[in-house]
Each structure stands twice: as C-alpha cells, then as structure tokens.
Amino acid sequence: MSEVYANRRSRLRDHFNAAGTAAALVTRPANVRYLAAAAPHGAVLLLGGNEDLLVCAVPPDDRPFEGRPDEALRVQVLPARGGDTAVTAADLARSQGADSLAVEEHHLTVARHRAIAAVAPALRLADVGCAVEQLRVVKDEEEISCLRIGAEIADQALGELLESILVGRTERHLALELERRLVDHGADGPAFPTSVATGPNSGRRGHRPTDRRVEEGDFLSVCLGATYRGYRCEIGRTFVIGTSPADWQIQLYDLVFSAQRAGREALAPGAAYRDVDRAARHVLDSAGYAEALPPLTGHGVGLEIDEDPQLSPAAMGKLDACVPVTVEPGVHLPGRGGVRIDDTLVVRPEADGGPELLTITTKELLAL
Questions:
Q1: Model confidence over 91-139: pLDDT tens digits?
Q2: Which ranges carry the Creatinase N-terminal domain (predicted)?
Q3: Are both 146 and 275 inside the same structural domain?
C-alpha cells in the first residue's frame, strides 16, 4: 500500500511543481489522510524538495481505525505541546532550502497563514487550491472496498432496527441505538449525525432527532451512515408505522421512488452532474413539488461524507468511472411529513453492469 500513497503524493507534487512551487503544505485532515494513510489530530503533511514529512503534535496513535502513517514517510513530532504543526512544517521547508510553499488557503485561517509567513518570510506562499480534493474524486478499488463494507454495516444496523418495536420510542433514542449498532458491527463510528424523523418531521433533510415519539400512521424516515477505515457511506429510507399506509403516503412515496430511480439510472461515466440532478428533479417538478425540493440531489462520498462532485442544477463537470455518489431526492410537506430515499452508488460503465449499488436495504414501502 505504501506505493499507493507515494503515487498520490507524486501526482500532487507534479501539480505544484508545474505551477512553479518547490514544496507544499497539506493541512486539511481528510487530505492529509489521503496522502499519508493517517491524519493524527493536528497533523500536517509537508511535501518538500528533499523528503516528505508528517508533522504531528503528539506521537501517532496505533489504533487501526485512525490509520497508520505510510511507512515511507518520516514522522516528526513537535518537541513541546502547544506548538503549531503548520508553522513548524513551514520552517522545515525553509530549512530544506525551499524558496516557495503551496498551502491550502481554503483551509487555513488568516491567523495561521500569517504565522506561516512570519516564521519563514523568505518563502513565497502560493495556493495549491483544491488539488487534493480533485485527486480524491475518483476512488481506487481499495477505497471502494472500504465504502462497500461501510454500506454493509449500515444496512445491517438499519435492518436490525426495523425488526424491533418502534411505536412509543423517541427519535433521539432510535438514532442513538442505530449509532451503537454501527459500532457493534465494526464501524469506526457514524459517518455523520444519524437522522431519525417521524410524523411531520419525516422527509426533512438533515433533521436533528427530537423527543417526539413514534406513532401509528407516521412516516418514519431514517438517514445514517457508517465510517470504515476513514471512508464514509450514506443510506436513507422511509417507512410507514402501522399496517395500512394512507393514499397520500403511497402516492408521495411512489413519486420520490421514481425520482430516485431516475437519478440512479442517469449515473454513467461522462454524464454531466447537472443532468443527473435534472433526471431526478424533473420527476418531482412535474408533479408540482418544485418548491419542496432540496438544493441538490446527491454528492460524492469518501473520506468526507459530503465531497465533490455535487449533483445540483448549477454544478459543472462530468462523472468519471469509479466515483462514489449518493442519490437522495426527497420531499417534505410542512405539517404533514415526507419521504426521503438515499443510496450510495459507484459510477461504473455499462459494460461493467452500470452503477454499483452499495446500500441494498429494500426500497419497498414497508409498514412496520
């Protein structure tokens, strides 16, 4: 695996060298982990002219779920607590003879940027931009395998919850139980705060669980995800509590399901981001729900739960193969509730079977 990380660093080095910069400082934790195999708290990565260094505030932990630094990297720990790893790394770049340093301006605070400039005033600071984030968009099969295992864990946790008694339990209680089950089945932890929404709260994107109790006749919408070896997946499903869904619930569910299917079917190498969004959005627009729709239909996943690409009406760019994304249309009707269906898939060419569905919990409207 060491050569995988070395290759990633080499690609980034080609990028900033081509822009005329001698060294680069990576500070965003997900980007550090992508390039170094681990991102201990506060660590930064210096890609220098002589060698690459992982600069840590404390010695790296040996816990597997936090990752172990690439053995080809030299790890340097700050001599005393309270120092700034980024400032130390900039000083190291200067001592290595670098005359310029590319930094992640979109991640650094103004104060930190000034501190870097102060410790090494002879260094010309440049912006590496979102070069690492762009490298992260297309995943290798090892990364996809981690996402696949995370999806299996999320499916398992959700499936077990559905077999339990739900009526009378609070949204908050159910969310906590789901997160416990994720860890019990081998996840590093939840990929994001688990959302459980009942009744009038259902279908609301990003709903924070409350003390509202599940009642007969409610829509119950659940959105959760597992983190496995740093990689994060997402699944969302909507169910009905009771034995006989109301007509309006069946109609709304069927509509959102049709929109989600249209979005999934639009996933293909070369498809424009906005066209995938349009495929799902058109179904709901045509039914008169334009004002009830979220700002995007899906997004990339990986070391972060919300990364490029963004599947939205104004998004620019086209999908590549081996890009994992969510497709998650939903409709929320104020005071009544709504439906959200969310899957994680990997873009694959038609010759390889088309989009690979990672989250396989049934999308049938179940009455629980």
A1: 999 999 999 999 999 999 999 999 999 998 989 999 999 999 999 999 9
A2: 8-138
A3: yes
